[in-house]
Every structure is written in structure tokens, then in C-alpha cells.
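Database export, one record per block. Field names are fixed; values are copied verbatim from the stored entry.
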Amino acid sequence: MKQALRRALSSLLLLALVSCSLLDGRPERIDVYVGTYSGGTSEGIYRLDLDPKSGALSGLRVAAKTKNPSFLAIHPNGRNLYAVGEHTDLDFKKSGAIVAYAIDPATGKLSELNSAPSGGAGPCHLVVDRSGRSVLAANYGGGSVCALRIRDDGSLGAMSAFVQHHGSSAEKSRQSEPHAHSINVDPENRFACAADLGVDKVLVYRFDSEQGTLAANDPPAAEVTPGSGPRHFAFHPSGRFAYVINELASTVTAFTWDALAGKLAEIQTISTLPAGPVAGNSTAEVSVHRSGRFLYGSNRGHDSIAVFRIDQESGRLTHVENEPTGGKTPRNFAIDPTGTFLLAANQATENIVVFRIDEDSGALESTGHQLEVPKPVCVRFVAR
């Protein structure tokens, strides 16, 4: 009875969110921040404008000069941005960094506040928890996760949690040691889930937002098929399901999510490719549409966005299509705050391509809009 009631309330909440998006109109402007890899013409973090009606991109400029800001996160207040700083010397014994910025609301320009060690080499992913009190990050090279406190001015304070992962898995060239590839906080801000490519697990931690601490949950993890290489992870907005995209196997694994126990239980694993394996393909990003009806995943090699329909009762996925990204190596993509557009960041061809999302099927249609951006690897939005 309680479970049925919770499902009904979740459905009503999703309907309310969609209805509100139709009634309150679109934002006047959407600032787009792009994390990049240094080298060539890239100078750091870029900013551009997204027209919320047409999907047109314009006004490319440097928001902050910095080295290898390969992944970004926006504070819930929209006034601060956080970036990872990866090392380029491949010395995995060194720590990477997290950098905090203030966002000028008038110009969108970034002003660096401070930086702090991430506790491990190669930080590749970070999020701000839903209370806005902590930044949580995953260190790929170091195989660890951490949390840093956020001060009142948005700058970074002390490290409040650090967890070293251990283990290995089947693909020895990529999985001889742990490689934490992402960390995400659940909709209720009570748990953090870390996808580790090296050990083929999604590790679950109890997260204390007041203290910024991480503690192993019971059960401590969900395992995927050996050799899959879980990379990025996304919760369904209802809080009932979750999804991990597997880099090495080119698959997505769907889970049910027990929000009280912090437990993931596998439902299904499905290919991100239309007709079996593609030589040299690996997956990268995964995202659930704000409506909860569709899931998207990126293929590098096949150079496409895989589109899936989500069954609202079971959480299972049904393949809809694979849409070419209009470039090569879509390392990242993001859905804009209105749920209308998907922006695919093609790292190798250095362009961001804008697609319109069909509200009935979830299918993607090119808007004809794109913009050249040096080595784009992460896209984030601030609506104004």
C-alpha cells in the first residue's frame, strides 16, 4: 500500500513538473559553460549563449583560463561553478585539484575563488550535493572518491571525506586497479553512488549532508557484468530507478533504487548500439530526461546518441534510435533546463551540435545549429 502510494505521488510530481514547464514560459537566456582539455587552441572554460526558443548557439568566449577543466558542476544557487583539474603528466601518484569560481550574474564571467586537492590523481567527475554544502568528486587515476565542504562565499573548505577503492576486474588493460569514474547524489540527498570502471561496481555510500561524510552502505555496492566498465550514472527523477552506462561493453544497466536502504537491484542490461558491437566503440555520458520518460547515452566510435524509452512502472528501457552527433567522439552531452534541446559535445571534431527533443517519442532532430568549441568535454547550463 505504501509503495503504491509513493508511486502515485511520484507520478503526480513528474506531471506537475512538466505542467509547470509549460505554464511558466522559458528563461530569457541560458548560459552554457563548457569544460575542455588543454592543448591546441583551448584556453580553459568557455561560455556561450543558447537561445531557448531556437536552440541557436552564439557568443563563444573564454570564461576562465585554467588547465584541463574536463568536468564542471553548477551550485544549486547558480552563483558558483566548480571544475576538476586533471594532471597531464600521467603521474597517478599526484593529486588532482578542484577549483571554485564565482559566476558574475550579469556577464557570466568566472572569477576564481580558490582551489583544493582532490586527494587522488586524475579527478574526472564532480557534483554539488543538493543542499549546496559539499562538492563530491571521483578520482579516476587514484581510484578514489572525496567530499569537500563549501563555504558561505562558495569557496572550497576542508576535505570532509575520502574513500580509497580497491580491487580489479576482467579486462586487465583497463581494469587492473580501481578507476572511480563518477559520483552522484540520490534525489533525497541521503546516498552517493560511485561508478568505478576498474572494479565493475557501483559503490553506494551513506552521505551526511550536514557533515559532508561518506560511509559504506549495507549492501556496499551493485555489481555489473565483468568487463563492462561502469562510467557515468543517473537517477530517475522519481527516485525509483537508476542507470549506469558501461564504457567497455557499450551497454546501459538499469536498476531499481530502494531509497530507504540505498540498494540497487539490476533490472536489465541493454546495448547502446543498434546492431551489436562496433569496433573501437566506447560509451561516455548518460542522462535521464526531466520528464522521466527517456534516457540518452553517448557512443564514441559509433559517434551517436542512443535514445531509449523508459517504462514508468518497471524502469526497463526500449531502444528508440541512434542519432549521429554531427561530429566525432561525443564525450559528453547535456539536456538544457527546459528539456527541449540536447547539446552533444564532440571532442575530436571540436564542435557542439544542438538537437531538438521530440516530446512524444524522445527522438532527436538536428536543429541545424552548431558551434566550434576547442576540445569540448563537458556541458553545463545556468538559466537566467
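Remark 1: The first helix runs from residue 2 to 23.
Remark 2: Confidence is low (pLDDT under 50) at residues 1-24, 88-92.
End of record.
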